[in-house]
Specification:
Elements: H1 3-17, H2 39-53, H3 68-82
Length: 84
């Protein structure tokens, strides 16, 4: 799975939770908080994305993730670890 595909999954789920967002305004270096997502919204995006990508790990591992790019990189690493 490419990082671009992971970004599309996250973006799709973010737009599902925050439908008023302009899709063109979502950039990897932004945080979901910057885009108006509260803590519940962010958790929903992460969990839905994990399910869609078939990833399983404790959510506390995401503590150091600061923006969408960090989430993409984290998911990509986990995906590669599950699919060597």
């Amino acid at each position: 799975m490419t990082k671009e595909k992971i970004f599309e999954v996250i973006k799709h789920n973010l737009l599902g939770i925050l439908p008023d967002l302009d899709p063109a305004s979502i950039e990897p270096l932004q945080s979901m908080r910057d885009l108006g997502a509260n803590s519940i919204d962010r958790a929903d995006v992460v969990i839905q994305s994990m399910e869609e990508l078939n990833l399983k790990f404790p959510l506390h591992e995401l503590g150091a993730v600061e923006n969408i790019q960090g989430l993409i990189d984290f998911f990509h690493t986990k995906y590669l670890g599950n699919n060597p």
